Amino acid sequence: MSDESDATAGQFRDDEGTPSDEFGFPARGWRMLARHRPPGFGRSRLWRSPLRGPWLTSVFGAVLLAGLPLVIITGLLSYIAYGPQFGQAMPPEVGWLRLPSFDWPTRPAWLYRLSQGVHVGLGLVLIPLVLAKLWSVAPKLLSWPPSRSVAQLLERLTLLLLVGGVLFEIVTGVLNIQYDYVFGFSFYTAHYFGAWVFIGAFVAHVVLKVPQMIRGLRSRSFRQMLRTSRAETRPEPVEDDLVAREPSEPTLSRRGALALVGGGSLLIGALTLGQSAGGFTRQSALLLPRGRVSGEGPNGFPINRTSEAAGVTAESTGPTWRLVLLGGPMPVELDLAGLREMAQHSAKLPIACVEGWSTTQVWSGVRLRDLATLAGVSTPLSAHVRSLEAAGAFNQATLQANQVSDPDSLLALRVNGAELSLDHGYPARVIVPALPGVHNTKWVQQLEFREG
């Protein structure tokens, strides 16, 4: 029997030599499982890199432990920003996974731009680290048997959920920012529930593995590893399944591996930053191409959904267009000329999309609170906005009381001193500080202000 098989068999006994695990599972059961090895599993000679070991794995793990919680928190904040209390966050019904609801603030105006930019940008930047971490633990992921005790089996199940969850979130997230509605299912629903699978597995994995990660970090000096050349690189002691038993010659030092992964993250960051920085850098944002479709002149900023895609035509927004205000004793109708005669207000506000792109423009129009007063509702608790767009997931939105009353919340008629283009919502669109982009409804035809 090989050394590997002997070592495996030995682990089927407890400290007193009893042939069973701590749960009383017979040792012969684990031995039988070990003999029926699927192709490709447990073949340690495939994993011969001398770099693998607890130290490098722990370094990758420590960085992910710092970054992934921030991605998780900002993702959950994005869900709350969509207004789940109005049933407009997706998915609308989440059962016991419901988050605490509160009125999403309008200040600072760049709040959603920051939170969603961090969620998407940091999520992309961490992809090389996630892949490096998976590479570093591949021998353990594909070892056979998958466990040598019931306790280890439970640990492996959490690891399976963790790996599956993070890969699912990465793949669906990247596809969503690359393509327009490419899925045969709801991205929002799948991404939300997939996130909770990942969160649960992540918490369990952290609880189980943090002590081991700390030991791994302490096993070697980080400064010394950065000074070690490829020629001086040596495998770690064979005390862990991650360490190759028959290591090959190093083709890269550990500092080289860290530089390679870090460089990949920096490159992704550089190819993402332009979506928020704007200007000429926007064209370099290759990982977020949906935000690169832009208008011209004063309307020359990203368009997520064109009028053609929304089925809105020049005829429907022409001289016969009317804005209907509801909620008061009688409906009030205004044409574009009537809106222009009302007091106008200008505000420099960002607009940010769930895909991660954002831009800041100067908007001009009528305050929403002035329209509420005109409708006969002095202190609205909410406002329901309807668009000319006949169909679509976001052809209507409900605004909170603070979003209606904010002095910079507008029914915008102009942007950067020019009339809105049809693609940007002509003749009128909503713009509210810190509101997700899709709820800044374009082509508005009705506003209903509600007092309760």
UniProtKB/TrEMBL annotation:
TM ranges: 55-82, 117-136, 157-179, 185-208
Pfam families listed in its UniProt record: Oxidored_molyb (PF00174)
Highest taxon of the lineage: Bacteria
Region (Disordered): 1-21
Keywords: Membrane, Transmembrane, Transmembrane helix
Listed GO MF terms: oxidoreductase activity
Boundaries of every Oxidoreductase molybdopterin-binding domain copy: 319-450
Listed Gene3D superfamilies: Oxidoreductase, molybdopterin-binding domain
Coiled coil feature spans: none
Stated name of the protein: Molybdopterin-dependent oxidoreductase-like protein
Species whose genome carries this gene: Saccharopolyspora dendranthemae
